[in-house]
Amino acid sequence: MGGTERTASEKADFKRELTDVVPHLRAFARGLCGRADMADDLVQETLLKAWAAQERFQPGTSMRAWTFVILRNAYLTDMRRNRFRGEYDETVAERILTAPAGQEEPIHLSDMHRALLTLPPERREALLLVGAGGFSYEEAATICDCAVGTIKSRVGRARAALNTMLSDGSIPKRSLQDDAAHRAILEELDDVAAGNGIAARS
Amino acid sequence: MNSDKTDMPTPRGAPAANRDGKDPEWANGLRKLYDSVVDEPLPDSFKDLLEQLDTKD
Lengths: 202, 57
Known about the structure:
The structure holds two protein chains of two kinds. In chain A, about 65% of the residues lie in helices and about 0% in strands. By secondary structure, chain A is mainly alpha-helical. Chain A has two domains: about 10-80, Rna Polymerase Sigma Factor, Chain: A (Orthogonal Bundle); about 95-195, Arc Repressor Mutant, subunit A (Orthogonal Bundle). Helices cover about 40% and strands about 0% of the residues of chain B. Chain B is built from two helices and no strands. Chain B starts with about 25 loop residues before the first helix and ends with a helix. The model of chain B is unreliable at about 1-20 (pLDDT under 50). Classes of the chains: A mainly alpha, B mainly alpha. At the A-B interface, helix 1, helix 2, helix 4, helix 5 and helix 7 of A face helix 1 and helix 2 of B.
C-alpha cells in the first residue's frame, strides 16, 4: 500500500514503538475477550501482523491506535471462528477496587469485568477505547471505522447498561455461554465486521 | 443494524453517565481494570517474540 522499504533506523524506531504499546494491547485484548491467556495469544498475533505490515505504518502517527485496529480485526476474525466465548476467568480478579469516599459498596473488578463482557461487542470496544484507553471519540471512531456519532451512541448505551447492572447488582452470570446470547453476539459481529476496512487489515 | 443511530435518546430510567457532570463510580473502575493490565510485568513470551521479530525479515 504505497509504502517504501524501511531503513534500519526506521525499523528500530518501529520496533521500539511497538514494544511500548504491548502493555496497552494486552489491556485492550483482556477487556475484549475476558481471558488472560486468549488475550495474550491475540496480542502475539497482533504483534506479528503489525511487524509484517510495518511499511503501512505512517511514522509520527499513533502506534497505539494503529495496532489497536489490527488487534480489533484479529479479534473479530477469531470471534467469528468461535474461539472466544467471552468466558471470564474468575481467578484474575479477586482484587477489590478501593471504594470511593462515601461509598458503602466497593465495586469488585470481577463484577466490572463480567458486566463489561455482557455488553454487545461493539459497545464493549467503544467503552474500552474511550472509557479505559483514554481515546477521544474521534480516535475511537477511526479505530472502529465508523462515524463519531456512532461511537458516542455506543459509549452512551454501554454506560447506561453498566449503570443499571452495577447499581442493581443484576449482572448476568452466564449470558455469554448461553447459546442464544452467543448467536445474538455473532449476528452483531456481522454488522461490526461489515464496516471493518481500515489500513491494518491483513 | 439500526440500533446505534445517534438520534435515539438514552432510555429513561437508566440515568446517563455524566448527566450531573460526574462519572459514575464504576468509571474509575474501568480505568483501573485497564491500568492494572498495563502495569503488569510483561511475560517472557512477549520479550521472546519481540526479540525474534528482527529475524523475520
